[in-house]
Queue: 2 jobs
Job 1
Amino acid sequence: MNTKKRILDEALTLFSEKGYSDVFVADIAKAVGIKAPSLYKHYKSKQDIFDAILDEMKGNYENKASMLNMNGNNASADAVVFSAVSEDDLVKMGMGLFMYFLHDDYVKKFRKMLTVEQFKNPDLALIFTKQYADDPFSYQSAMFGMLSAGGVLKAENPDVMALQFYSPLFMIMTICDRHPEREREFIPLIEQHIRQFSRLYKGEN
Amino acid sequence: MNTKKRILDEALTLFSEKGYSDVFVADIAKAVGIKAPSLYKHYKSKQDIFDAILDEMKGNYENKASMLNMNGNNASADAVVFSAVSEDDLVKMGMGLFMYFLHDDYVKKFRKMLTVEQFKNPDLALIFTKQYADDPFSYQSAMFGMLSAGGVLKAENPDVMALQFYSPLFMIMTICDRHPEREREFIPLIEQHIRQFSRLYKGEN
DNA sequence: ATTATAAGCTAATTCCAATTAGCTGTCAAG
DNA sequence: CTTGACAGCTAATTGGAATTAGCTTATAAT
């Protein structure tokens, strides 16, 4: 039941591994458990399936983003109090973000699809950059700005602080997308990064 | 002349933008200025062209890597002296690495091809991770370890230092691959990052 | 001069994958 | 009960893309 939705799920799984062109309608159908022509009862073409995946994602993202306070909306950082943020708080936040991005099945597949399709499709390039760069930067920059203003952290360029805090998470995520088996090796490094970052910007040493 | 080499160049250009499957033999031939069947006088199949590109790159990399002191060979960091490394030295080194990766035409195309093919081809995944993560990390970690030991920088985990130094370069490079027009916006940020990194790890502030 | 080879071309050939045609069974609404 | 929409199937159809066949010309070696 709900074949229509299952088609999108299986198609996304396949697209994220093989890219749009190397996935055949018959592959998607097989994954769903039907024959290729039956699939046309639900979508009028392969491209239509792809578009539906994009539409679905656009809905999902705004929810998740505001949930994680990750959106570009500058009002959202208000929720973070100016006052103390401990090293453990930063670790919790950074690891939480990292683990969510890395392990949420839907998010992961969608990201991998963006990765392999980005140069063919300018829309996807924009979505990728917004979700994985501009939005996190803008949120974190606002946060670090306030933490600096509140005297919790050194007064340094908050854009740079955001870049330095976030890009290790991003980079290691891309490595783990390629080599999930190396995750064990990198998780501790992320935590060490965040603790070291925190100490450096608190001026402790 | 040297059609054989031109085929590789044009094929790489196309593969890097559209991915292997979306490039037709006729496209490559057209870019070279011949007809598709003529191309088979030089390579026995489309796959053969792809393989030749890989082979060529394997040769290129080891040279470039040792030139840039970027390889995984731990002896290579010996060239860096223990003694003083100024903020400007770090900027020069970081920006040089970044600009080379970002603007060298061959390197850029090859990276984009790795990006879009990585999940289909485990070999490419390994090459990507080696060239853009393991090798830079191992070189820089050795370097920061020596700078710490020499008292030039604080004694902190050198793996984390390498991660923090390099991952902003990597991440911004991936953004610029998608949006070359945003380069102007990001180059200054890279320089600020390196200067801020340097000051933090020198304990100045 | 002759001939072999290299590198190009046009015209098949072959295969494959998306899509369409047309049929069948189910089942809910009337 | 019976009819229409739904969702599936098998068997075409269509179009596109890789590769092969077979021919031509230029050139370099004999």
Note: The CA atoms of residues 114 and 128 of chain B lie 6 Å apart.
Job 2
Amino acid sequence: MAKVTQQDIAKVLGVSVMTVSNAFNRPDQLSADLRERVLERAAKMGYTGPDAVARQLRSGRTNTFAVVFEERLSYAFSDPFSVAWLAAFSEVMERKRASITLLSVPAADVDALVAIQDAAVDGVAGLCGDQPAMARARERGLPTVYCTRTSEPGSEQAGDYVVIDDYAAGFEVGQYLRRLGHQRVFLLAGAAYAGQPPMKEYHRGDLDTSDHLRISGVLEGLGGAEVTIIPMGTNSSTAGRAAGVAVLDRRDRPTAVIAVSDVMALGFMDACRQRGLEPGRDISVVGFDDLPESAAGGLTTIHQPVRDKGRLAAELLLDPQRPDRRIVLPHELIVRSSTHPVA
Amino acid sequence: MAKVTQQDIAKVLGVSVMTVSNAFNRPDQLSADLRERVLERAAKMGYTGPDAVARQLRSGRTNTFAVVFEERLSYAFSDPFSVAWLAAFSEVMERKRASITLLSVPAADVDALVAIQDAAVDGVAGLCGDQPAMARARERGLPTVYCTRTSEPGSEQAGDYVVIDDYAAGFEVGQYLRRLGHQRVFLLAGAAYAGQPPMKEYHRGDLDTSDHLRISGVLEGLGGAEVTIIPMGTNSSTAGRAAGVAVLDRRDRPTAVIAVSDVMALGFMDACRQRGLEPGRDISVVGFDDLPESAAGGLTTIHQPVRDKGRLAAELLLDPQRPDRRIVLPHELIVRSSTHPVA
DNA sequence: TTGTATGCGTTATCAG
DNA sequence: CTGATAACGCATACAA
């Protein structure tokens, strides 16, 4: 059987399509009696209410917002930082009865950009930086909000954002370690530098990631210390644990290790303890983000307001009139027990 | 400026709308030269590719599937069981380049059902049972798949499903504890029985949840043991910890405690240890689900194949031709160190 | 290879 | 209070 439409009902009932439409959407536009008849007939004919897509086309709004991820979605669900952001974002959306569409648009996969084209949404947000997917969305005329700064301030693209100053955050970390006297530091980088060997010299990656800004800041803050950057290829506690091999099992072990994220830092701390090394006594460890579990683990880190990022991103999308649309939130160096002065 | 459409381009170029459409979707349907001209012109006019919604209306497909949750979305992201399911589900969807829309439809909130009406999707899945939202989706003619059996087998609704036999699982747990000699057991129930006092007598709740089947099974399996059911109101480790108060801080402490989920059971184990009680020595604890962390924690539990549930749910939605659409997956009692015979 | 007519299902507008 | 008409933007079927 073909799909029943308002037209069919109208025909059977001998009324206009408009009357049927009104029966569903604007009860005040027709007599209660007629409305009753329409609804009853509709039910009898197996009509199930206005078609969502048709209505969207007509109204020009979908009441749905996309969240894009550079990674596979399963990563988005497993990374605590991502989950926290998503929770805050979704709370705002739920309150406004808007729904959320998840889009995975790996930077590598050019084909995936069509997902942006084909998404029936009113706007796009991402915990990520201003990646190609965001630009594509804007080309479509959609509002966008990104939550990680990847380019130098000033070279801003067109999109709105809610970020922290990752460069400054990195700088504070570097400066802090320098003041503690650390002269040999290893830096665990994330996904952007996949496949590259450890680097003594830092060249800005061709990918503009927040790693880049954090790393630049750290290097600057550390001044002349000897720094080795280890590209882990992925941002996970597994990667952090794996870093134990590359960092701890060598003669010239560094006195401090900085990971570009807490998940990685916490994984690395596990690796330390497994080898009988206590962070904050035998080696210093610093992370970024300040996850809930970081407090329990005693990890010195940069706190950033994840939930505010998620909440504000949602609010910016929902309210195009909101005045301040380029937001830089504060961050803070939280010193815990995982760092110590060099003897 | 108004939105640029294919019609506008066609007019300017003096070709038909169809040619413009083809230039974007079927390059083989027109000369490379003309196509080139169309695309160039389109770009110049600020046309950004076919409109997603219009295309969906025309084609009748959205390539998007909804996932419904009975809880707030933030819960969906924080519960490990839910996250595992979602990860598996999304992996299949990603592979087929389909996207996912998240819908929160609390059972209590009747208004939320409109979210189902207004969702532009090709199908609906849920980790939940065959709740009203699912029925609503089917009324709309959408395929549905649910992943938790809530009714007795035989009283099946119309939807497809991927479940385990929760009653049997419960029975095995009860039987196991009975054989260990446990005569006084407390049962921590989840969300369904919110607000109710502890129950000595079990009446099937008016909500058909998997709790119901598990609980019935447990009671049956335990035979004549004295069972007290404590409705925790929510399914979280916090609730499990909170149960410590209701269970451990009393004279007639039970010899065994069963939680309807591992998260809760693990939380309860924390509460035990906080009071100096060691699960598996001073008290027996059993859960359901077998999360990864349950193995580490030594929790005796029912293993169920979460990832298979998610994967199969996605496959059923993506392939309406797939033959077996009512799937009951195997479960298994995994005995670990949290249970022991009564002295 | 290109064009024409038409429908997808709904709702705004405006006239009765 | 009710109805006729015209979009919304695109793509299928078929004709040229």
Note: Residues 3, 5-7, 17-18, 21-22, 25, 50-51, 53-59 of chain A lie near DNA strand C (CB under 10 Å from a C1').
